[in-house]
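Please produce the structure of this protein holding flavin mononucleotide.
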Amino acid sequence: MPHPDPPASDEAGPDAPDPAGLRQSYQTGRLEPDQLAATWVEQFARWFADATTPGTGVPEANATVFATASADGRPSARTVLLKGFDQRGFVIYTNYTSRKGREAAENPFGSLVFPWYALERQVVAIGTVERVSRAETERYFASRPRGSQLGAWVSHQSQIIESRDVLAARDAELAARWPTGTPVPTPPFWGGLRLVPDTVEFWQGRTNRLHDRLRYRRACAADRWIVERLSP
Ligand SMILES: Cc1cc2nc3c(=O)[nH]c(=O)nc-3n(C[C@H](O)[C@H](O)[C@H](O)COP(=O)(O)O)c2cc1C
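Below is the modeled complex.
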C-alpha cells in the first residue's frame, strides 16, 4: 500500500505541544482501606457505577486496555469493551483468531487497565485468561445488533487486507446469506474471554504523585483475598 514520504527531519513540528510540560495535580479523591468493599468485585461495582454516572466525564466507562503476550513473552495491548463482570472475573468479546485471541490461547496470562482519568482513577487487573462457555458467548451474541453480528463474521480480525472493499464485499455476501429476519449464527471463531484476576488494584490520584493504591490479592486459599497498600 503506498504511503506518504517521511518528514524531512524527525523533529516534531512547532505546533506539537511538549508532553513534558503537561502536568495535572490529582486532588479530587482518596482511598483508604476502611472505605474498601469486602471484595474486589463489590469495589469494582462501586467504581464502575461512579464511572458510568452521567456528568462525571468518563467516556466509554467500559473501555479497557487488554494486554496479552505471546508464548515467548512479547506483550501487546489494545482497547476492548467490558461486557460483564462478577466474582469469576471480567468478560470481553473478540475474534479468537485475532492477535489477542491467539496470544491468550498460547499464553494464558493477561491484564486489564480501566483508565478512568476524569475521576483520577484506574483499576488494574492481572490474572489468567480463559474462554467463556459457548452458551455464554451465544447468549451475548444473540443480544448484539444485527450489523455487529454480521461484522463479527466479516472481519478476519488482525489479518492484513488489501483495502476496505474486501470488507464491503464480504459484508454484502453475508447479508445476503442471512437476510433480515433470519438469525445470524455465532461465528465459531468468535467469543468471550474472561480475565480471572489474581490481583485487582484500585488507584486513586493524590497530590504530589503520592497516590493511593490498594490491591486485592488472591490468597492461596481459593476464595480469600488479601488487601495491601502499594507505594505509588
Ligand atoms: C473504544 C474501543 C473499543 C473496542 N472494543 C473492542 C472489543 O470489544 N473487542 C475487540 O475485539 N476489539 C475491540 N476494539 C478494537 C481493538 O482495540 C483492536 O483493534 C482489535 O481487537 C484487534 O486487536 P489485536 O489485533 O491486537 O487482536 C475496540 C477499540 C476501541 C478503540
